[in-house]
Automatic annotation (TrEMBL):
SUPFAM superfamilies: Homeodomain-like, Tetracyclin repressor-like, C-terminal domain. PROSITE patterns: HTH_TETR_2. Gene3D superfamilies: Tetracycline Repressor, domain 2 (1.10.357.10). Residues 6-66 form the HTH tetR-type domain. This is TetR family transcriptional regulator. It comes from the Bacteria. Keywords: DNA-binding. Residues 29-48 bind DNA. One of its GO terms (molecular function) is transcription cis-regulatory region binding.
Length: 194
């Protein structure tokens, strides 16, 4: 019985993930998710007490995938610079993916702008983690200004993700890669250059 419950939950989350990302969260109703996942309404609400809980699970799953990608890049034992490049390349690979529709978190934030809403809070939690992680990576490079460098990286990522779903992703990814290289080579104080 436990295996059936887990399969039903996984099917619900997988179905919702595909629909939310492809069509938008507000555009997809619970009835459609139930129909496409081939479960009952009771099964949906047993696993996810509300649509908001399902949306947060969708975002948490996206968060887990990104955390895993960063952990994989870090575990390779390369230099901090190479780890940052690997994170950047992972972002570029995502942008090049067929069906790419931008950042799931930015898309969700646009649909749920209220900072007090559960979905918006899930977005903020992920973004705070990502910024802290990039700050730690830039700190490991020995940069004198890791905080601003990390913020700049996140802004470059956000811009690349927005532009990457609007036009040919290749020049967007190339520009993003040059921006990452610029951040890695930039020193904010002349004393850093010696």
């Amino acid at each position: 019985m436990q295996g059936q419950v887990s399969r039903a939950r996984d099917r619900l989350l997988s179905t919702a993930t595909g629909l939310f990302y492809a069509e938008g969260i507000h555009a997809v109703g619970v009835d459609r998710i139930i129909a496409e996942a081939q479960v009952t309404r009771a099964t949906l609400y047993r696993h996810f007490p509300s649509k908001d809980d399902l949306i947060v699970a969708y975002l948490n799953q996206a968060d887990d995938a990104i955390r895993t990608g960063v952990a994989t890049a870090r575990s390779k034992g390369t230099s901090p610079e190479e780890t940052i490049r690997a994170v950047g390349e992972s972002i570029a690979d995502d942008i090049r993916r067929t069906g790419f529709r931008g950042c799931a978190f930015l898309n969700a934030a646009a649909e749920y702008p209220d900072p007090g809403h559960l979905v918006h809070q899930a977005v903020r939690k992920h973004r705070q983690w990502f910024l802290a992680t990039m700050t730690a990576l830039f700190t490991d490079t020995g940069k004198s200004d890791p905080g601003p460098a990390a913020q700049h990286f996140v802004m470059l990522r956000d811009g690349a993700m927005a532009a990457g779903c609007l036009s040919d992703p290749e020049p967007i990814c190339e520009t993003f890669g040059r921006g990452v290289e610029g951040l890695l080579s930039y020193r904010s104080h002349p004393a850093d250059e010696g």
